[in-house]
């Protein structure tokens, strides 16, 4: 492909439609209807348990941070609180956007809206954005959620470990929406009937942030912002790290999630923060399987998938050299090898991409 245009309105978007990549039929591992029905069963219990733990921990950590403020002894508590606010809420936003975290819809909607606020992602914009991400995963010009573009911008990626780029753009988009307007790219995938909801939420959020800033000014302290707002910056590193591993260095413009997504075994703490999204090939193949069932799904279909990375450091050690190589050759990607028990990649459809992987 050479130089890529990631705009939803550019030539690569048109090319994806013309070549059949847009809204294509994706590869799925064979699994029986009975097994899939069992895996797709929803339950309130796991998500209620995890949500109580999450918010309980956030209250305790913020309370200790406030009690010890402004001493440096408060720093560890703020750092931990920040990861729960600025990273764990990313996975909660994600899973609740699918409507699968809880069996009860209003619980999903409540957590989705809270997590969207923490992550500064308009819940109506991002619901449609994420639907497109699953329909056209890493299809250039169609997927609005590609985290690592080619060639990779390492300065941007490092800055985003502290939320700097994402938050800057989120503030701009929030203010644009609050003024009663949508960005043209948003308007390309948000139904017209939903667009007024985007504007309403943005105006509510502007009012909340204005109140928090006013309280900080009145107190002569950034303490209110340490609770609401700033954790999106100082707690972002974990969700950026895990988010880059989802697809970074892998194929684009293919219709097999085994080529463009990565599963990584992670420690229990990261799995709690990430809500099992480390099983990412599995999630993309079967997005309606709840997060708490993904380990079971993995066991049932792993015979057809590339071997998972055994840890976060191992996955980073695989991804980073591939990204560096893409600085010199945009078409290069890391091809995940399949086990002998797997059905092969579609060489006819992916021949161009698979050839680039070998370069």
TrEMBL record:
Q: Does the keyword Transmembrane apply?
A: yes
Keyword Transport listed? The answer is no
Task: Give an example GO molecular function.
Answer: oxidoreductase activity, acting on paired donors, with oxidation of a pair of donors resulting in the reduction of molecular oxygen to two molecules of water
Instruction: Specify the species.
Output: Salibaculum griseiflavum
GO cellular component annotations of the record: membrane
Which residues belong to any copy of the Fatty acid desaturase domain? 70-309
What stretches pass through the bilayer?
47-69, 154-171, 204-230
Ordered alphabetically, the record's keywords are: Membrane, Transmembrane, Transmembrane helix
Query: Which Pfam family, giving just one, matches this sequence?
Result: FA_desaturase
Per the record, the GO terms for biological process are:
lipid biosynthetic process
Record InterPro entries = FA_desaturase_dom, Fatty_acid_desaturase, Rhizopine-oxygenase-like
Query: Know the name of this protein?
Result: Fatty acid desaturase
């Amino acid at each position: 492909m050479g130089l890529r245009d990631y705009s939803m309105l550019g030539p690569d978007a048109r090319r994806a439609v013309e070549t059949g990549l847009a809204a294509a039929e994706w590869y799925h591992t064979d699994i029986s209807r009975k097994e899939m029905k069992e895996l797709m069963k929803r339950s309130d219990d796991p998500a209620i348990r995890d949500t109580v733990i999450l918010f309980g921990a956030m209250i305790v950590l913020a309370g200790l941070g406030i009690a010890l403020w402004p001493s440096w002894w408060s720093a560890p508590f703020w750092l931990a609180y920040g990861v729960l606010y600025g990273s764990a809420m990313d996975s909660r936003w994600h899973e609740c956007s699918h409507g699968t975290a809880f069996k009860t819809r209003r619980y999903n909607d409540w957590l989705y809206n809270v997590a969207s606020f923490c992550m500064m992602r308009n819940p109506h914009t991002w619901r449609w954005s994420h639907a497109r991400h699953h329909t056209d995963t890493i299809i250039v010009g169609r997927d609005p959620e590609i985290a690592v573009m080619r060639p990779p911008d390492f300065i941007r990626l490092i800055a985003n470990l502290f939320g700097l780029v994402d938050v800057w753009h989120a503030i701009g988009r929030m203010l644009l929406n609050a003024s009663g307007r949508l960005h043209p790219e948003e308007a390309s995938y948000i139904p017209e009937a939903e667009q007024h909801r985007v504007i309403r939420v943005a105006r509510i959020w502007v009012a909340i942030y204005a109140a928090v800033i006013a309280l900080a000014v009145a107190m002569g302290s950034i303490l209110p912002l340490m609770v609401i707002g700033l954790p999106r910056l100082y707690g972002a590193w974990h969700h950026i790290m895990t988010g880059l591993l989802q697809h970074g260095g892998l194929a684009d413009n293919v219709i097999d999630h085994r080529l463009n997504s990565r599963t990584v075994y992670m420690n229990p703490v990261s799995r709690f923060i990430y809500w099992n999204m480390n099983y990412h090939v599995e999630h993309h193949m079967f997005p309606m399987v709840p997060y708490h069932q993904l380990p079971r799904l993995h066991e049932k279909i792993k015979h057809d998938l590339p071997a998972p990375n055994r840890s976060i450091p191992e996955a980073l050690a695989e991804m980073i050299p591939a990204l560096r190589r893409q600085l010199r050759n945009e078409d290069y990607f890391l091809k995940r090898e399949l086990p002998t028990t797997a059905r092969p990649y579609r060489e006819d459809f992916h021949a161009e991409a698979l050839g680039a992987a070998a370069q």
